[in-house]
Amino acid sequence: MKRTGFVGSINRAATAARWALHAGLGAVLAVAGVTVAAPPAQAGARGCNDRTCIDVDGSGLHVDRITASTTWGGDFTGHFHVYGGGVSTNSTTGFWGYHQHFTVPVGRDLPNRSVLCAEGWEHSDSGYRLRGRACEEVRF
């Protein structure tokens, strides 16, 4: 009787088991590495659309303030509307230049995945004209 076939079967089975163990361990470590390496989402974010920008200050789900402003060369006469996450506020109507900001104090945690937006509305004799809607998502 030849034992080589039996030993060969055991070696193949052992090799397959070792490979499965290594693959499984590698997958677990990869997931753990992604989990550990991924930074937590922050409330702090900034973005612009057309002539309007939004700046969200805070950490995690806590939002300290939301600021609306214009882009460089995006001056207009009108108002800003800041909304989302239970916030809805309009600025006064006036001239908004590049270095002028409309800030809404929030000072609380907002629901995860809240979308905060700032709209710039230009006023003219023919009515209101949207000058951009910039939005950022607060998530953890």
Biggest sheet descriptor? 5 strands, antiparallel
Beta strand %: over 45%
What is the element string, with H for helices and E for strands? Answer: HEEEEEEEEE
How far is the N terminus from the C terminus? 66 Å
Q: CATH topology of the largest domain, what is it called?
A: Immunoglobulin-like
User: Total domains, how many?
Assistant: 2
- Identify the overall geometry: elongated
Mean pLDDT value: 80
Radius of gyration: 28 Å
Low-confidence stretches are 1-15, 20-41
Specify the CATH architecture of the largest domain.
Sandwich
Tell me what you see in this structure.
This protein is of the alpha+beta class and 140 residues long. The chain has two domains: 1-38; 45-138, Immunoglobulin-like. It has one helix at residues 4-37, and strands spanning 45-49, 52-59, 62-70, 76-84, 87-90, 94-96, 101-109, 114-124, 127-138. Strands 4, 5, 6, 8 and 9 form a five-stranded antiparallel beta sheet that branches. A four-stranded antiparallel beta sheet has the order 1-2-3-7, with no helix packed on it. A hairpin with a 2-residue loop joins strand 8 and strand 9 (127-138). The longest helix has 34 residues, at 4-37. The radius of gyration is 28 Å and the shape is elongated.
Briefly characterize the structure.
This protein is an alpha+beta fold.
Secondary structure elements and their pairing?
Elements: H1 4-37, E1 45-49, E2 52-59, E3 62-70, E4 76-84, E5 87-90, E6 94-96, E7 101-109, E8 114-124, E9 127-138
Antiparallel strand pairs: 1-2, 2-3, 3-7, 4-5, 4-6, 4-8, 8-9
